[in-house]
Amino acid sequence: MADLKMWFFASFLIILPIFVEARVSRNDICKSNTLAVYKLRMDTHWSNETFPKQYPLYRPAAQFSRLLGMVHDPSYVLWRNGTEAKQEIRMVAEKGVGELLEQRQGVQDVFAAPPVVRGVGSTETIFYSDGKHHLVSVISKIVPSPDWFVGLDSYELCSNGRWISNVSVQVGPFDAGTDNGFTFTAPDWPSEPTSPIIAITSQHPDHPANSFYYPELEALPPLATFHITRERIYRATDGLKGSKRRRTKLARTNPVIVPLPNVIGKVTPDGHRHISPHVKRVHRKSSRQAVDCVLGHWSSWSSCSASCGVGFEVRTRKLTKPPKFGGSCSREMQQKRWCGGHTKCIERFFNW
């Protein structure tokens, strides 16, 4: 008995790591039925010590507007270096205000984070990404500035077919190309025509009045760092997979020996009765074909279990006729899929 217990314990230790490893590996894959929840934190590094030139101390002091972001597929671009800024990007880059971007084709989630009210600080939020929408783009205005911002353009969350666990990305300032000002507090001087979005470097634009112009530096210190951390992965199953279809073969025609009782035979001509011996008759079972079960129609999908954030919706069906004679039957009586998003969790407008 002691040996049996030791064998069972050893078997458990061998099996458990294999099960856990398989589970982690499966959930890490960027499949269409997975939903990854990420935390995004923006740390800002705009200090008087790091960027002493024309550092804004008041009216307004150095700060960053509310962080605005989108999760989307490759067909959608929020902003991109070298392209013209969209109207909503122009509003954020110039004014720091604007209407939150509504969901549109190619966009899965829209989210926002509170402003950073000083040059050095932090803000964070969460967002959702699925297997079809695995790019994240964000933007936050540098305040004060003509039309400068920091952000991420289409950052890939699915690397080598798996959801990234965590990453930190350092960024510098960008110029939206919609205003001609060179300094943080320059008056509104619209660009006509507008210029493409460009990265601001220590030597470009090379005008001496440019507030980020540090020709003695090879590169500007990072103005902000985006930390993306995976919080959880939801796996929206479509119900349990039915067991492998099994059909019972036609019952074999097994011969069965059936003994018959003694019977009194006919009277023979000599007046004697003839007793018939036991008679053996071959009887064959009739073949019965396996009959599968019958399932009802799927019900409508239930309402989402969460009004804000990620939830699930469910539909069910019933067994109307059980299987017969060894027929098969699917165990898929319930299906579940994820629903919801971050859009309904935030206000419609934002201000810095």
Automatic annotation (TrEMBL):
Keywords: Cell adhesion, Extracellular matrix, Secreted, Signal. It is found in: Secreted, Extracellular space, Extracellular matrix. The keyword Translocase does not apply. InterPro entries: Spondin/Thrombospondin_T1, Spondin_N, Spondin_N_sf, TSP1_rpt, TSP1_rpt_sf. NCBIfam families: NF038123_dom. One of its GO terms (biological process) is cell adhesion. It comes from the Eukaryota. This is Spondin-2 isoform X1. PANTHER family: SPONDIN (PTHR11311), SPONDIN-2 (PTHR11311:SF15). Gene3D superfamilies: F-spondin domain, Thrombospondin type-1 (TSP1) repeat. Residues 1-22 form the signal peptide. One of its GO terms (cellular component) is extracellular matrix. It comes from Neodiprion lecontei. The gene is LOC107223581. Residues 26-208 form the Spondin domain.
